[in-house]
Amino acid sequence: MSNVGSDSMFPTTRQMCQQWDAQDPLAPVRSRFVLPDGMIYLDGNSLGPPTVDSAQALHDFATDQWAAHLIGGWRSDGWMDAPVRLGAAVAHYIGADADEVAVADSTTINLYKMVHAALRLRPDRRVLVAADEDFPTDTYVIDSIASQVGAVVRRCDPQSMASLDFSDVAAVVCSHVHFRTGVVNDLAGITAAAHAGGAVAVWDLSHSAGALAVTVNTDRVDLAVGCTYKYLNGGPGSPAYCFVARRHHADLSQPITGWLGHADPFAFEASYRPASGVQRLVTGTPSVASLVALERGLAATADVDIHQSRSKAVALTQLFIEVLQGNTSAGPSNSLLSLVSPGDPHKRGNHVSFAHPNAYAIVQALIARGVIGDFRAPDVMRFGFAPAYLRFVDAFDAATHLNEVLASNEWRHPQFQVRDAVT
Length: 423
Ligand SMILES: *Cc1c(COP(=O)(O)O)cnc(C)c1O
Hints:
- With 423 residues, the protein is an alpha/beta fold.
- Helices cover 34% and strands 12% of the residues.
- A 7-stranded mixed sheet has the order 2-8-7-6-5-3-4.
- The relative contact order is 0.17.
- Pyridoxal-5'-phosphate (PLP) binds at residues 106-108, 135, 137-138, 175, 179, 204, 206-207, 227, 240.
């Protein structure tokens, strides 16, 4: 239907939402995922759900590969090649060539590798430009590297980065979509500004890969990292990826020189020689069971057109906001609720955040109703809209629940005030 994805149009009643769902070309994709009955899952930006074949694939891995072949599985079952094989599958989601991505380690460790590598690509420069208020791991890792190598970190608002002078800067490091606010940063503009000054651009794509059209090669990104357990549905702790543009393959030197990034690991040589291409990004033994689940997660949305799914996500987030703002039959919301994410849907990713002084308790009350969002300190509630498995009725119902929780003060109940360590 022509209205799906259009910014100015949104369904104003639950019945209209059902009509949109009935005509949504992506609706059948939902059946590829396992979602608990009755739950509205708005946290796929933090941990995607399993696919219907994830459990079977993990079971088959344990019985038909691990138990049956034991150590032979490294060769016969493709375990050793999984980091580059799945790298090729991730490449599709970020606009990279198949041989420019490897899957290994966590995002934190990959960021460490890539920021170090970026500094080594510009050995005469000791300045890093980094986003202020970025995801904590990014901030901590960048600060640690700077102190290790004697570099200086210049923190600035990504909104002004595209007009910075990078002429003494080794690298800029920034998240494409901000984890708390959902702001989409100007990846192409900042990368171009970095290049104009001779700097390298390193992007964290954790909240954008699988959510928006990411085009690292068109935009001339140098290095990138990102999570696979968010919109790529790899499962809890599934390994992260690193992208290295081909023009840097020959010169790239990353600091964690493990044996599986060696040119000839089974020669057990006394000193390190890097493997060619992205194999040198691999450090140690791959997490095979996690990669098995990730392979299913990546396959689940590989045929989905990213522009179509992004349009649907824009419509879902807009609908959610409109219901909360009282622009639909569901009624008005609470004036203490303020939109943290950009109002312009093209400037926000696929998650929407609201601030409220009692955000923590409100999120708990929503979870008790089966609406799963999350809380991000100090006062933000965050709701992710993965278009592969969410329906328009889900966005409508979730916002209606939130309106009810606010109107009834249900969140004041003592059980919702107790803070868990994981939010
Ligand atoms: C989720 C996320 C991470 C997580 O890093 P891990 O090493 O997987 O824990 C890092 N950076 C950003 C921007 C994220 O959104």
